[in-house]
Structures are given as structure tokens and as C-alpha cells.
Design goal:
The protein is built from twelve helices and 17 strands.
Length: 441
């Protein structure tokens, strides 16, 4: 049973009884990446029949073989789904979505090297959905994007086919809120924001989205829901930038920034702790605010706080490289020619995802300044840097093998002893306070 929490006066406060009975529903999930696959598994676990669609043949094979990058709980759910061939199918042909009652679009929305939104994956996915959609379906876009995208890529093209939102089809935007590697909060415990094109659209999505979340929060439009997601990740970007700046200030004043942040976090109101690090990765914080900035530039609006925060995030890896040079210089060694080990190339602990990982820029920056860089990451295994693939060392190297160890991500599988025995450590994760030979950015 899912509680609907409305904010628009016209949306009635009702209990979604139908959400408790999803077993007869058929859902298609378009895009089976770090968001789409857990979403598909959540639909299956809720009793729905699932058609997973992905244009990557390699990704389809990974899922069918049971070998995608998932944590143990999701791997177990995938194994159950793979054995339930009557209710779980993974295909590469988008035409299969015509069989579904509801279509969830979960494709990535990255940015390019100029920090401009790359809408190609989303546009192609929506074009495929529009081409194969039929009357009676519910279409839900979940990918983070610019305000108005749901109308541009779904509502208007479907109307051109004679499928009007709120009549022949029902269209919503409901932003994904999946945190990879977070096993502390179940997907069902995260409130799902839903913005329907019409009230009927929002209510038609309840049986499907209500099976994935215990509470739905309905907003007045897709645009309000789109902006909600942009606000969430822009808020994080601004505060992470602030935490990094405070860490730099704390070092100059010979203070422990983590101690200060934890102390401030004891206040039960008005403060939310954010922690410094080597930068941010994934397709959320480094990318999503740029969708807003890109749209605002067209309107000739330049929000200074958001722009400064994103610049701070972009510059953080370069700060790590400069600090590495400073640490080596204090030890009487130049960065050029030094042997540097980068520990952890994923963008967050315990997952193999290296998208937008700050480690990539740290490695590139170190090599550009002449350092001889190797990596150790037993989770990611390897990372692609431009056209080159760097492979992880098979095990932690012995002390003395490297002049400096730069820690950019701490996986649970990497013991503290494997790092702290090194001669010099630059701890960009701020997670090794007991190491005597440790420096921070």
C-alpha cells in the first residue's frame, strides 16, 4: 500500500489500494544501467512482469549471464528474476514495449567535454518509445534532464501520432532516486516524486510507481518534478564544494575538517553534514546541475552560486594533483619521474562504476606532469583513460614500491594496512586519520 502525498490542491489524498496488487501488470524498463536494472528488479520483486530493453547487446548478455556490476542483494534478485522467465525478459528490440502497460525510461543523461548536456541517449530512447507506444499505456520518464524535456520528447511527439496525454496515453515525470551501493535505504523507502501532465496521468501511474515506493509525492506538473531533481543534486553540489573549501581552510589552520564537520552535525536543526573528498563522479552531481545552467544560459540568466559550485567541483581533482606535487616536494622529490599509486578509481566505494570519477582526472593530471602512475582497485579492476586502458595491480604493492600513494576511493575490500604502510600518503578521502605518514589535500 502506497500513500499519495499531494501538494497540488486538485490532487485528492487517497490510499493507492491498487498499488498493493501489481502482480497482473506488465512493465517495460528502457535502459538497464545503474538505475534501470535495479528499477526492473524492483518491479519484478513487487510482482510485476518485466520487459527490460537495452540497445547494448553487451549489457543484455551481462544481465542474461547474471554478471552485471551489482551489490549482493541485487545479484540475488537478478538470479530470481532470471529464473522466472515467465515474468522477466531482457531484449534489445524496443518494439517489445508495445506489450507493456507501463513504460519506464531510465537512460543516462551525461554531459560532454564542454559541460554541455548530451541528450543523444535520451532522445533516441524517447524516439523509440514514441514509435512503439500504443493507446492505454502509462509512460514515465525518470532520467534527470532539463525542465520541459518530458513535453518536448514525449508529450508533443505522441500528440503528433494522435496519442494525447491524459486521454489515449498517460505521461509523467518521476525522477530516479537510486543511490548505487547504498544498502542502508531500500528503494521502497525512498519517496517518489511524480509530476503528471494531467491529474489523470498522475493517478494512472500510481499502481506502477506505488509498487516501487511506499510513498508518492505528487506535484502539479512534469516541469515541477524535473526541477525537483535538479534542485536535489544542485543542493549537493553546492554543499560538497563548501565542504571541500572548509577542508582546505582547516588544513591551513591545522584543524581536522572531519572533526569540525562532525561537531557541527550534532546540531539537530539548520545543518546537514557534507564531507570533503577528491571530487565527485557518476552522472548525478557532476552532470545534472549543468542541465540547469545550460537551460538558463539560453534565457540569459547566470546563477552565480550554482556556477561557482560547479567550477569548484570541476577544479577539485587538479587541486589533488597540485597537493601531490607539494607533498613530494616536502619529501625532497619532484613529481616528474616519481612513482605514484592511485588507490580506488571508482567514483564511490564498493562499486565498479568509474563514470566521471575524479580519479580519472587525478591520474591524467599526474601523468601530464611526468609522474609514473599505477592504480590499485580490486573492485573496478581497470579504467579507461582516453584511448588507454589502465589495469589494477593484482594486489597491494609492498612499502617502498611507490614514492606516493594517493587515495581517491576507499573500498571495503581494501584494508587500511594495505595503504598506511606506504612511505607517503595523500588521503583525498579523509578516511585514514591514524596514518602517521598521511597528508590531506
Amino acid at each position: 500500500m502506497s500513500l499519495i502525498d499531494p501538494v497540488a490542491p486538485s490532487l485528492p489524498q487517497v490510499m493507492a489500494e491498487t498499488a498493493a496488487q501489481p502482480k497482473h501488470h506488465v512493465v517495460a524498463v528502457v535502459g538497464l544501467g545503474y538505475v534501470g536494472l535495479p528499477t526492473a528488479l524492483g518491479c519484478h520483486a513487487a510482482g510485476m512482469s518485466v520487459i527490460g530493453v537495452d540497445v547494448s547487446g553487451e549489457r543484455v548478455r551481462e544481465i542474461l549471464d547474471g554478471t552485471p556490476d551489482l551489490l549482493e542483494p541485487d545479484l540475488c534478485r537478478l538470479e530470481l528474476a532470471r529464473n522466472d522467465t515467465g515474468r522477466f525478459a531482457v531484449v534489445g528490440d524496443a518494439a517489445a514495449i508495445a506489450k507493456a502497460e507501463c513504460i519506464l525510461i531510465c537512460v543516462p543523461t551525461p554531459i560532454d567535454d564542454r559541460q554541455t548536456p548530451n541528450l543523444a541517449p535520451l532522445t533516441k530512447a524517447c524516439e523509440a518509445v514514441v514509435a512503439h507506444a500504443r493507446a492505454g499505456q502509462v509512460l514515465v520518464l525518470t532520467s534527470t534532464t532539463y525542465v520541459g524535456c518530458t513535453r518536448d520528447l514525449l508529450v508533443d511527439p505522441l500528440a503528433a501520432r494522435g496519442l494525447m496525454a491524459g486521454q489515449e496515453v498517460h505521461i509523467c515525470f518521476a525522477p530516479e532516486r537510486i543511490d548505487p551501493a547504498n544498502t542502508n535505504v531500500a528503494m521502497t523507502e525512498v519517496t517518489k516524486v511524480v509530476g503528471g501532465v494531467t491529474e489523470a496521468c498522475a493517478m494512472a501511474a500510481v499502481p506502477f510507481l506505488g509498487a516501487l515506493a511506499n510513498r508518492l509525492h505528487l506535484v502539479s506538473s512534469p516541469e515541477a518534478a524535473e526541477m525537483t531533481k535538479l534542485l536535489e543534486n544542485t543542493f549537493r553540489a553546492v554543499n560538497i564544494t563548501l565542504a571541500n573549501e572548509f577542508a582546505d581552510v582547516a588544513r591551513i589552520m591545522s584543524l581536522n575538517p572531519i572533526e569540525v564537520i562532525d561537531a557541527a552535525g550534532t546540531k539537530p536543526y539548520g545543518f546537514m553534514p557534507f564531507y570533503p573528498g577528491p571530487g565527485v563522479g557518476g552522472h548525478c552531481i557532476p552532470c545534472d546541475p549543468h542541465y540547469l545552467l545550460w537551460q538558463l544560459r539560453e534565457a540569459r540568466m547566470y546563477p552565480s552560486v550554482i556556477s561557482a559550485a560547479m567550477q569548484g567541483i570541476a577544479m577539485r581533482p587538479a587541486r589533488i594533483v597540485q597537493r601531490a606535487a607539494e607533498v613530494l616536494e616536502m619529501a625532497g622529490r619532484p613529481l616528474r619521474g616519481s612513482r605514484v599509486l592511485v588507490v580506488g578509481v571508482s567514483y564511490k566505494p564498493n562499486i565498479a562504476d568509474t563514470r566521471e570519477s575524479p580519479a580519472l582526472e587525478v591520474i591524467g593530471g599526474l601523468r601530464a606532469r611526468g609522474a609514473r602512475v599505477s592504480i590499485y582497485d580490486p573492485v573496478a579492476g581497470s579504467v579507461q583513460l582516453n584511448q588507454e586502458v589502465l589495469h589494477s595491480l593484482p594486489c597491494p604493492p609492498p612499502p617502498g614500491d611507490h614514492d606516493l600513494v594517493v587515495v581517491t576511493c576507499r573500498h571495503d575490500r581494501v584494508s587500511e594496512a594495505a595503504i598506511t604502510d606506504a612511505d607517503l600518503i595523500l588521503d583525498a578521502t579523509y578516511s585514514l586519520p591514524e596514518a602517521g605518514n598521511r597528508f590531506v589535500p
